[in-house]
Amino acid sequence: MEYVTFGKTGCRVSRLGFGGAVAGLKNYLHSYDPGSEESKKSVYQALETALELGITYFDTAPGYGEGASESMFGEVLGGTAPPKIFLATKCSPTGYDGVIRSVEESLKRLRRDRIDLLQIHGSSYTDENVRDLLGPHGMVEAMEKMKKEGLIRFIGFSSEDNNRGLYDLMNSGRFDEVQLCYNFIFQHPYEPSRPFGSLYEAEKNQLGIAAMRAPTSGTFQRWIKMIRPDDTFDYNRALIQFVFSNPLVDVVLAGMRSAARVRQNVEIAEDMSGRIDLEAVHGRYV
Ligand SMILES: NC(=O)c1ccc[n+]([C@@H]2O[C@H](COP(=O)([O-])OP(=O)(O)OC[C@H]3O[C@@H](n4cnc5c(N)ncnc54)[C@H](OP(=O)(O)O)[C@@H]3O)[C@@H](O)[C@H]2O)c1
Fold first, then answer.
1. How many Å lie between the centroid of ligand 1 and the Cα of residue 254?
2. Which of 9, 36, 214, 270 is 20–30 Å from 256 (CA)?
3. What pTM, to 2 d.p., does this model score?
4. Which domain holds residue 207?
5. Domain at 70, CATH number
6. Looking at the 3D structure of the chain, how many domains does it have?
7. Is the backbone peptide bond immediately before 62 cis, with ω within 30 degrees of 0?
8. What's the gap in Å between 148 CA and the centre of ligand 1?
């Protein structure tokens, strides 16, 4: 397993990150019931296999099935502390008191007294959202207070976007990490030939950088099905390797809910022959 220093946190974490959305969300990407005994057993085995194979970065959120994903993580990872694991969770945008309540609940479900990374669980941030989050007695002030008290080690935020709100949050100096959507079909965060993009901005701010949706949350696969219905080639390997090839991405998140998927993705992560030269791919024509 490859390990990297996670931006200004200084922590060493595995480059492959265990994405927890698929564990907790009902019918996410395909038919699935997080409440069934069969699903829980499968997720527990996936988490145990991840630990055995050296994955140390785990990402979950209360929003993944109203706490279902966090509870499953707590069941298996509850007794495991850093540096063996780096546990990240989230809280949907809220106010000062809301995030404190949310962390109290997360800690219970995760069965720990400290969270390594608390992220604002975001998608798109308007200018007004950013003002509210960063303003006096706002959500970030409460996150900073919990960081000082030792309930949280680091703070960050996630975003699917590439707008001014994202840049303002990254440049605010208040965060240790950012989780961005970056993959083969969402390449806007990284254009090395100019260069520009939010991955460069995150790096400039020395943020730990996690990339969500490495296998594109099924979007690329659905597109292929539409244009080539008989195509049975497995594109997932190349899609995941694409994100691993980006030198600015610290942690590559892939959603996993079975031990077989974990083994497969560890093998992909360790296969250096699949890494490509992204600058060459983005190169101009002559
Ligand atoms: N706003 C936010 O904060 C946000 C938003 C989205 C995601 N995230 C984070 O990023 C993580 C990853 O995103 P995601 O789970 O939405 O999407 P994803 O990782 O792109 O897709 C997950 C699906 O990909 C399949 N998969 C994974 N590896 C595979 C492989 N090697 N071959 C074939 N299929 C493979 C799995 O299918 P099977 O189920 O069949 O195994 C899984 O259901 C999330 O779990 C979450 O931690 C955060």
1. 4
2. 9
3. 0.96
4. 3-281
5. 3.20.20.100
6. 1
7. no
8. 32
